[in-house]
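RECORD TYPE: inverse folding
INPUT: structure tokens
STRUCTURE:
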């Protein structure tokens, strides 16, 4: 249903002289009830079909002929279309609030005008779809939802990391309110750090990157927190099998200042710690938490201010006490996580020029502590080991949006980031009684670097069926020891032969000044961020993509087909058997560098947008190889997460307003891994000899051939879920029931060689998650 609003505007007496004049209409598009900005909402002139899209702060601009009587249509997915009939002789500001409408599955989806911002290489998933899908342990996960889209793959079983078009997790620029985050997972990678209750909008860009983005090779994940309800106080929360969370939002001053605060915590340690202490006088526990805070304030009609804060940590502890007379004790602690804060100021200079200024701070840290205490009668032995690593960034940037007319949008800006790298440090301290026997510190010294950039991008509609998005980004990375410069061109050409079809071709070059060294093992992840140095240059990528999209049956169905080719240079990887933990040499001596990568593939998406049954089918065929001079005899080998085939099927069915059910099925080619081609047995310990030589312990030495020469078994899994909602006197409650891995597929997490003392070796598979039912209870008030 559409609302028609008639707005009388000032009519100039000199209208005859203004007939040829262009006038501008600009403003903010928001949710009418909450005043949350609507990012990517469409506004267009129904007569010409020309329109615009609201930016990251809900701001839009459109032009038309003065004195023309036109109809402006405002549309946004899940909201009622609103039409304003207007006759204007001067520039006008219209801030519009849209009403949430009947579910998108029950309305007709109409043409929304030609836009300068096409959707090639972009994926946007409404937050409500995330909460409709089956959950893992009762926890709805934004990252796992994106893994169901073509071109996006998961790593191992249950992992929330994103492997996009042949790239690793470190090659994704993940922004929370314009601030980069370096680690975005909890629970050893099984849950992402993003609390869906605090998120307003999330967009993934796989190619054709706008010039404002840089610093990573493979993708941009742009996440925007909610601003907070300007009109009334609201709250929500949930209790699940993995975590519990709660959120509050509301006005500090109605229609002027709002806030939102959201927290989430893993609950099991509240039970495991006291139980283990009671049972064995030991303490074993693990927990994580997330805290999101945001304040939104309207300084004036033209100025808005935002303060954002995020902190999230994982921590693990294991404390063992010897119940004997010696009273020995050992303790291990591990802690890692993010901290982020930002200040942003929006300013509208006039109808044509919009700006955003940002100051930000972000930090990632990783820390392990090991303590041992031994009481040997007259002498007490004490040992403490400490390992640290991290990265701190302080940044400032300013971005401008300039709207000369309906056919053109010019974006430009500049910024700087001051990096403090703390690659790693190991400290050892040991005493025997009152005597200090060991007190040493090893590691790599801190590294400080500046990263500056400037960019310019022009989106222009050349013809009604052809638009060009051309940009350039220049960056400089420097320290006392070095300086790297890069010029990165961006080009996207969109051809729209009809209202419902589009062909796009894009080329992008990206530069990445940070490197990630990561251990992919079961247990606590170890992610270490390293700088580009004189000996380890920054990584680069160049990507070409071509895509075709088509909407059919009044846009109820979408079809897209994309192909891409990506080349990567200056990659790094650990040398075989190398490890920074307990190492005494610089990290640069532990890696292979100057690696090259190549990835290419085809992605297909068929999506149903309307009706009681909605969902999509996504398929990816791809191939990714890496090549290092000193690995695999210099021959290219499959990347660990190279998957030739990746398929996902997502179905959501709305039974009525209170009940919906969903199912997801995924299939993927097994990951590549190295399997030895032979072995010989060596004796591990001569003490195992006896006279008959019957108790000899053999230790196999394996002989490896080509790197990643075998593949794991294919991966597939079916998840199902159901939501039961009910309106109550105080709000709404929802029960979610989900089953992970419904048919109990034993998918491989890793393989290992199991050997016995008689020299027999067997290849075995480790699986993590069998069929796992879960339940969660959520509420709104």
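DESIGNED SEQUENCE:
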């Amino acid at each position: 249903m559409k609302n028609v609003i008639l707005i009388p505007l000032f009519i100039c007496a000199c209208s005859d002289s203004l007939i040829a004049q262009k006038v501008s209409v600009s403003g903010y598009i928001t949710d009418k009830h909450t005043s949350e900005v609507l990012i990517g909402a469409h506004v267009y002139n129904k007569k010409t079909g020309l329109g615009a899209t609201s930016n990251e702060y809900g701001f839009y601009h459109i032009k038309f002929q003065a004195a023309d009587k036109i109809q402006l249509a405002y549309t946004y997915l899940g909201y009622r279309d609103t039409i304003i009939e207007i006759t204007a002789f001067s520039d006008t500001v219209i801030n519009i609030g849209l009403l949430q409408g009947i579910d998108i599955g029950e309305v007709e989806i109409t043409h929304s005008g030609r836009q300068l911002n096409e959707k090639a290489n972009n994926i946007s998933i409404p937050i409500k779809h995330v909460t409709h899908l089956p959950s893992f342990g009762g926890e709805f996960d934004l990252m796992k939802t994106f893994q169901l889209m073509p071109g996006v793959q998961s790593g191992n079983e249950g992992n929330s990391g994103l492997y996009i078009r042949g790239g690793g997790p470190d090659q994704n620029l993940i922004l929370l309110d314009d601030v980069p985050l370096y680690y975005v997972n909890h629970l050893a990678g099984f849950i992402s750090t993003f609390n869906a209750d605090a998120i307003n909008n999330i967009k993934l860009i796989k190619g054709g990157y706008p010039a404002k983005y840089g610093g990573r090779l493979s993708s941009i994940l742009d996440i925007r927190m909610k601003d907070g309800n300007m009109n009334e106080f609201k709250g929500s929360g949930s209790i699940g099998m993995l975590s519990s969370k709660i959120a509050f939002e509301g006005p500090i001053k109605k229609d002027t200042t709002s806030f939102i605060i959201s927290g989430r915590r893993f609950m099991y340690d509240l039970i495991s710690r006291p139980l283990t202490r009671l049972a064995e006088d030991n303490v074993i526990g693990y927990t994580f938490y997330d805290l999101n805070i945001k304040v939104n304030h309207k300084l004036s009609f033209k100025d808005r201010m935002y303060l954002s804060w995020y902190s999230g940590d994982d921590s693990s502890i294991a404390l063992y006490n010897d119940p004997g007379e010696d009273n020995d004790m050992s303790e291990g602690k591990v802690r890692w996580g993010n901290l982020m804060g930002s200040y942003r100021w929006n300013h509208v200079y006039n109808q044509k020029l919009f700006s955003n200024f940002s100051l930000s701070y972000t930090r990632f840290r990783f820390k392990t502590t090991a303590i041992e205490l031994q009481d040997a009668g007259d002498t007490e032995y004490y040992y403490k080991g400490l390992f640290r690593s991290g990265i701190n960034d302080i940044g400032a940037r300013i971005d401008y949006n300039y709207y000369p007319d309906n056919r053109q949008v010019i974006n430009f800006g500049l910024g700087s980031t001051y990096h403090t790298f703390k690659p790693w440090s190991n400290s050892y301290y040991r005493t025997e009684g009152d005597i200090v026997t060991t007190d040493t510190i090893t590691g790599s010294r801190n590294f400080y670097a500046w990263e500056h950039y400037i960019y310019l991008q022009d989106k222009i509609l050349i013809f009604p069926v052809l638009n060009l998005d051309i940009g350039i980004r220049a960056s400089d990375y420097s320290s006392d020891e070095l300086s790297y410069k890069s010029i990165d061109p961006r080009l996207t050409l969109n051809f729209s032969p009809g209202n419902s079809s589009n062909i796009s071709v894009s080329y992008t070059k990206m530069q990445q000044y940070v490197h990630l060294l990561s251990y992919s093992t079961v247990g606590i992840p170890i992610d270490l961020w390293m700088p580009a140095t004189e000996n380890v240059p920054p990584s680069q990528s160049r990507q070409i993509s071509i895509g075709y999209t088509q909407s059919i049956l009044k846009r109820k169905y979408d079809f897209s087909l994309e192909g891409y080719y990506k080349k990567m240079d200056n990659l790094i990887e650990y040398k075989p058997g190398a490890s920074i933990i307990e190492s005494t040499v610089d990290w640069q001596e532990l890696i292979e560098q100057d690696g090259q990568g190549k990835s290419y593939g085809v992605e297909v998406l068929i999506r149903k947008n309307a009706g009681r049954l909605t969902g999509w089918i996504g398929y990816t065929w791809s191939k990714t190889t890496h090549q290092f001079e000193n690995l695999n005899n210099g021959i290219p080998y499959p990347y660990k997460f190279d998957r030739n085939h990746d398929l996902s099927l997502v179905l959501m069915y709305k039974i009525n307003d209170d009940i919906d059910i969903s199912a997801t099925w995924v299939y993927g080619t097994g990951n590549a891994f190295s399997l030895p081609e032979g072995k010989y047995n060596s004796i591990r310990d001569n003490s195992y000899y006896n006279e008959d030589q019957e108790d000899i312990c053999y230790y196999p030495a394996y002989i490896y051939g080509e790197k990643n020469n075998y593949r794991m078994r294919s991966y597939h899994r079916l998840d199902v879920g159901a939501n039961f909602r009910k309106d109550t006197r105080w709000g709404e409650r929802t029960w979610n029931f989900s089953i992970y891995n419904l048919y109990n597929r034993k998918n491989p997490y890793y393989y290992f060689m199991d050997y016995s003392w008689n020299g027999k070796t067997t290849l075995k598979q480790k699986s993590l998650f069998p069929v796992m039912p879960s339940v969660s209870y959520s509420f709104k008030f």
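NOTES: The longest helix spans residues 269-280.
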